[in-house]
């Protein structure tokens, strides 16, 4: 049977988005495609809540979006503070190091966030040009609230770069209001488009920092100097070319952004919060412990939970897959085989999570776990009925 894809990206996509992708490919300078590209850039500002931002749509993955942020905003020797709550914080450090940044990493213990005090102590040194935050670290399911960190960064005149790969269009982001200089993502998560697009939104300050560079951008493909005129042209509904855009993916992107904006970002964030809260309650009823030490730091786009003691993780996931639900294993090297991850972002509905919980419960029962059949479904639905 058809399997329900409940990993933290790629996710289940709207049929309308997949149909849009299957349309005949046009020239990248066909008038209808120029319109689609221009609309997509404008719709991004709504989703990012950044009316003054400069959007970029480039073929590539979330990692390319991180690479572009580092390549364009950082010069050799610049000090950058990396705030890490898992695997993807370390990846940002690696990328920044590659471009010659002088990085300092503040790493939270597994399941925790870095304190605002620890961040301020670093920023006080006055040496930093930029800091990076992983909004949701997909390896740990940790949510780091960017707003207070962005406020601090502003106080110390430091650029804020947010890895929003697992948060944009799922978690609350108000880029302009919060004063974040760069928010980046990939298409395959809460944006709801198959893998292959790097999406970035730069503040005017970030664009100024780029324009005032002393040294050339070390990556040809990532150089905003090549992409800025293209984004401007498409927004002015004019033909242009640097690298061939991923035509079909961008048609799908426009479709998905329209669906997102029709729901409205406030409603969408609330839906993610309600579903995540109910899902955590359901896991708790199965005595499954989540990685985040508190619900305040738990992501609303995915949940990471430890396997019960004595259960073989691969066997559990195989049993869940037999029931046509796909969940993900662990990613963080230190504890890779002791936990699993369930994505619940994008167009996720209560039905999807009922299916996940049913498959998970049956798999646990088959492996001899002493749980009461139906308990997680009951917890999930009770919790959901209490929310508005
Ligand atoms: N950052 C975060 C938080 C992610 O979750 C991911 C993907 N799992 C990435 C960066 C990298 O994105 P991609 O795999 O699309 O290159």
Textual characterization of the structure:
With 388 residues, the protein is α/β, with parallel strands linked by helices. It has 2 domains: 249 residues, 3-Layer(aba) Sandwich (Aspartate Aminotransferase, domain 2); 123 residues, Aspartate Aminotransferase, domain 1 (Alpha-Beta Complex). Helix content is 43%, strand content 16%. The protein has 14 helices and 14 strands. It has a 7-stranded mixed sheet, sandwiched between helices. Strands 11-14-13 form a 3-stranded antiparallel sheet, with helices on one face. The chain has a two-stranded parallel sheet with strand order 1-12. Strand 8, helix 7 and strand 9 form a beta-alpha-beta unit. The radius of gyration is 21 Å and the shape is globular. 4'-deoxy-4'-aminopyridoxal-5'-phosphate (PMP) binds next to helix 3. InterPro entries: Aminotrans_V_dom, Aminotrans_V_PyrdxlP_BS, PyrdxlP-dep_Trfase, PyrdxlP-dep_Trfase_major, PyrdxlP-dep_Trfase_small, SP_NH2Trfase/AEP_transaminase. This is Aminotransferase class V-fold PLP-dependent enzyme. Its cofactor is pyridoxal 5'-phosphate. Keywords: Aminotransferase, Pyridoxal phosphate, Transferase. GO terms for molecular function: alanine-glyoxylate transaminase activity; L-serine-pyruvate transaminase activity.
């Amino acid at each position: 049977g058809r399997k329900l894809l409940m990993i933290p990206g790629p996710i289940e996509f709207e049929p309308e988005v997949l149909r849009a992708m299957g349309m005949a490919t046009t020239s990248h300078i066909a008038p209808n495609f120029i319109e689609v590209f221009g609309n997509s850039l404008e719709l991004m500002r709504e989703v990012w809540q950044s009316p003054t931002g400069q959007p970029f749509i480039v073929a590539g993955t979330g990692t390319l979006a991180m690479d572009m942020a580092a390549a364009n905003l950082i010069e050799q020797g610049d000090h950058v503070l990396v705030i890490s709550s898992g695997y993807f914080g370390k990846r940002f450090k690696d990328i920044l190091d590659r471009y010659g940044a002088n990085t300092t990493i503040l790493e939270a213990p597994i399941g925790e966030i870095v304190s605002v005090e620890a961040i301020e102590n670093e920023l006080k040194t006055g040496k930093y040009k930029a800091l990076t935050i992983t909004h949701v670290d997909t390896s740990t399911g940790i949510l780091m609230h960017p707003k207070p960190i962005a406020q601090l960064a502003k106080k110390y005149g430091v650029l804020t770069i947010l890895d929003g790969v697992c948060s944009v269009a799922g978690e609350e982001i108000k880029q302009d209001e919060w004063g974040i200089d760069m928010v980046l993502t990939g298409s395959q998560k809460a944006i709801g488009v198959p893998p292959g697009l790097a999406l970035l939104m730069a503040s005017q300050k970030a664009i100024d920092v780029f324009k005032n560079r002393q040294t050339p951008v070390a990556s040809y493909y990532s150089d905003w100097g090549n992409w800025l005129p293209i984004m401007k042209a498409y927004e002015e509904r004019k033909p242009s070319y640097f690298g061939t855009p991923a035509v079909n993916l961008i048609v799908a992107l426009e479709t998905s952004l329209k669906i997102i904006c029709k729901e409205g970002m406030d409603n969408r964030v609330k839906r993610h919060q309600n579903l995540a809260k109910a899902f955590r309650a359901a896991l708790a009823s199965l005595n499954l412990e989540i990685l985040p030490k508190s619900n305040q730091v738990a992501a609303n786009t995915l949940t990471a939970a430890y396997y019960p003691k004595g259960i073989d993780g691969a066997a559990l996931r195989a049993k869940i897959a037999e029931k046509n639900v796909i969940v993900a294993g662990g990613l963080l090297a230190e504890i890779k085989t002791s936990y699993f991850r369930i994505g619940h972002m994008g167009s996720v509905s209560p039905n999807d999570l009922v299916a996940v919980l049913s498959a998970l419960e049956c798999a646990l029962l088959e492996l001899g776990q002493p749980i009461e059949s139906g308990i997680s479904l009951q917890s999930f639905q009770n919790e959901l009925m209490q929310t508005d």
